From TrEMBL:
It is a multi-pass membrane protein. Belongs to the cation diffusion facilitator (CDF) transporter (TC 2.A.4) family. FieF subfamily. Residues 217-291 form the Cation efflux protein cytoplasmic domain. Residues 21-211 form the Cation efflux protein transmembrane domain. This is Cation diffusion facilitator family transporter. SUPFAM superfamilies: Cation efflux protein cytoplasmic domain-like, Cation efflux protein transmembrane domain-like. The lineage of its organism: Bacteria, Pseudomonadati, Pseudomonadota, Gammaproteobacteria, Aeromonadales.
Length: 311
């Protein structure tokens, strides 16, 4: 980060969001377990199962967040930020497992429908779950906008799916009230499929981070424009970027006049780094200077320009 104050702010925000997720999951497990025992609703059981996996995922997420904030050491000189992506991958596994269980259990209840007891109580709990989950998602959205934490983003997407889950629970309970007993099992299965989709999205994003996916097109264009804003740069090539936790990593090769004084070349690179940090204040930047000669272009892998339309 730009300063130790901002780093401490980042740590505080992500830990608050992580702790709130754990507390919410525990509260939901207690409430839904009591209601499931009383009502015997399969869709409430589906929601309870999801909350149990929510707790496991949130605990893993919280531990990963804490580990990712550890300072760099000799063995991990880039820091530990990618542990957030690993936590997101673990979340995808937890969520995927719960979705399979819900689909199987829902199909079984569709084939052998049963009445739901204490519908009013089950509906009240579902409404409470929606309200609390929405409040949690609002907190996570606020923290994500300030920190761009991947783990918080994954947890936020996870709980957004929970809002849909609880809306589905309400619909199933309402249909059961009017005698459509099969709705309990059907909605449990549909909820499971929806959660499965969320698990795929979370897992895919985590894998992209672990594979060092480049920043988006707009970000790349800003970097290239910042480089070419200094007139002494002949061209730029082999620009590589990726994000890990709060950090953005940028490296590339700048082609300069081969007869340029080393001190002037160094000043040019310093000026370019300042320009890049206007849009990426927390970036770690490594720019390699090369002379404008034929041999420089022999081993170039990627020629980069602001007009490049590829991601």
């Amino acid at each position: 980060m730009n300063s130790s104050v901002e780093l401490q702010r980042y740590k505080k925000l992500v830990m608050i969001a992580g702790g709130a997720s754990v507390a919410t999951a525990i509260l939901f497990i207690i409430i839904k377990f009591v209601v499931w025992v009383i009502s015997s609703s399969t869709v409430i059981f589906a929601s309870l199962t999801d909350s149990i996996f929510d707790l496991l995922a949130s605990l893993v997420n919280l531990l990963a967040l804490k580990f990712s904030l550890s300072p760099p050491d000799k063995e991990h000189r880039y820091g530990h930020h990618k542990s957030q992506a690993l936590a997101s991958l673990a979340q995808a596994a937890f969520i995927g497992g719960s979705s399979v269980l819900l689909v199987i259990h829902g199909i079984e209840r569709c084939l052998h429908p049963q009445g739901v007891l204490y519908l009013d109580l089950a509906i009240i709990v579902s409404v409470i779950s929606i309200v609390i989950t929405v409040l949690l998602v609002l907190l996570q959205t606020y923290v994500y906008r300030l920190t761009r934490s991947e783990a918080i983003s994954a947890d936020r997407l996870h709980y957004l799916s929970d809002v849909t889950l609880n809306i589905g629970v309400l619909l199933a309970l309402a249909l059961s009230y009017y005698g459509y007993l099969w709705a309990d099992g059907l909605f449990a299965s549909l909820i499971g499929l929806f959660i499965m989709k969320g698990a795929y999205v979370i897992g895919f994003r985590a894998v992209q981070t672990l594979l060092d996916k480049s920043l988006g097109r707009d970000s790349i264009k800003k970097i290239i424009n910042a480089i070419h804003s200094i007139g002494d740069v002949k061209s730029v090539h082999d620009l590589k970027t990726h994000r890990a936790g709060p950090m953005v990593y940028i490296q590339g090769h700048l082609v300069l006049d081969g007869n340029m004084d080393l001190f002037k070349a160094h000043d040019i690179v310093d000026e370019i780094e300042k320009k890049i940090r206007i849009d990426f204040p927390d970036a770690e930047i490594i720019l390699h200077m090369e002379p404008d000669t034929q041999s420089t272009y022999e081993d170039v892998v990627f020629f980069d320009s602001a007009e490049d339309k590829t991601e």
